[in-house]
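Subject: design request, 287 residues
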């Protein structure tokens, strides 16, 4: 795709997620990164984005609106700020991809829905744990009727920035709600561990599903197919363990960044940003 045909996009937020997102966008042949917006001129992330050669501003959402229009804006800030950002951008006609766990927007998991959500202008990527677990859980739910689902995400302390820590309650609630939506399961429990271990552990998500009357081989086949679908845009995604026993299915996955810029423990950042870029590269929203 020629440079003049690239979709003009902006990143709102200059934390770890926003800076990595800027790098992924810069490597896309379909997107043109026109702005990285933070809220503090002293932000390390904003300075890093500037060193990478990206246009930057400390004007936050106001600067994004004034510098538009953009075809896509990525909100990589925090759940509490997202409603304000959507209210400001909605009249501009942009597509807003929500990387915060606010739960606002059409819930979107590329590993499940493919590209169908491109028809919406306000997309929610749930959470990193949701992006890692929901494709597996949806695949299982196609083969049985789960009565209980438990998901435990473990991430390194070094990859959990201030916004992530601030939004843990929203993260849990939004992830659980999305799991219910994609599996039809009422009883869902989501837990998050932020590990201070050294060396920092990779991003891991462990899932337990209780169900009856399923056949092990089709369950295993569906999980493998779902993992392949995620790996198509997150190469470092892998199933590390799988146990299919009577009444219980246990799956663990791990995400290791495949690029050169993120540390090995930051798989949580890699998976949600890869999903965001994949969505943004699709044709313009229809509504």
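Subject: RE: design request

Done. Sequence follows.
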């Amino acid at each position: 795709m020629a440079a003049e045909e690239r979709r003009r996009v902006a990143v709102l937020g200059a934390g770890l997620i926003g800076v990595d997102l800027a790098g992924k966008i810069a490597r896309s042949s379909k997107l043109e990164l026109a702005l990285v917006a933070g809220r503090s001129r002293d932000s390390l992330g904003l300075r890093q984005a500037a060193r990478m050669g990206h246009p930057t501003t400390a004007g936050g959402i106001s600067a994004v609106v004034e510098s538009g229009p953009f075809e896509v804006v990525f909100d990589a800030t925090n759940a509490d700020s997202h409603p304000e950002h959507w209210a400001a951008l909605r009249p501009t006609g942009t597509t807003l991809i929500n990387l915060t766990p606010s739960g606002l927007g059409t819930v979107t998991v590329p590993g499940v829905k493919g590209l169908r959500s491109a028809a919406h202008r306000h997309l929610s990527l749930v959470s990193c744990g949701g992006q890692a677990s929901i494709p597996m859980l949806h695949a299982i739910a196609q083969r049985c009727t789960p009565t209980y689902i438990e998901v435990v995400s473990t991430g390194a302390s070094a990859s959990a920035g201030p916004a992530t820590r601030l939004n843990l309650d929203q993260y849990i609630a939004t992830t659980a709600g999305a799991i219910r939506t994609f599996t039809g399961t009422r009883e869902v429990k989501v837990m998050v561990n932020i590990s201070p271990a050294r060396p920092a552990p990779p991003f891991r998500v462990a899932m337990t599903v209780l169900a009856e009357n399923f056949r092990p081989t089709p369950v295993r086949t569906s999980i493998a197919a779902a993992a392949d679908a995620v790996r198509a845009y997150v190469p470092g995604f892998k199933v590390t363990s799988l146990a299919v026993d009577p009444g219980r299915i246990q799956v663990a996955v791990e995400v290791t960044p495949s690029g050169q810029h993120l540390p090995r423990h930051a798989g949580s950042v890699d998976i949600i940003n890869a999903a965001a870029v994949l969505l943004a590269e699709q044709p313009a929203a229809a509504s």
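The longest strand covers residues 148-156.
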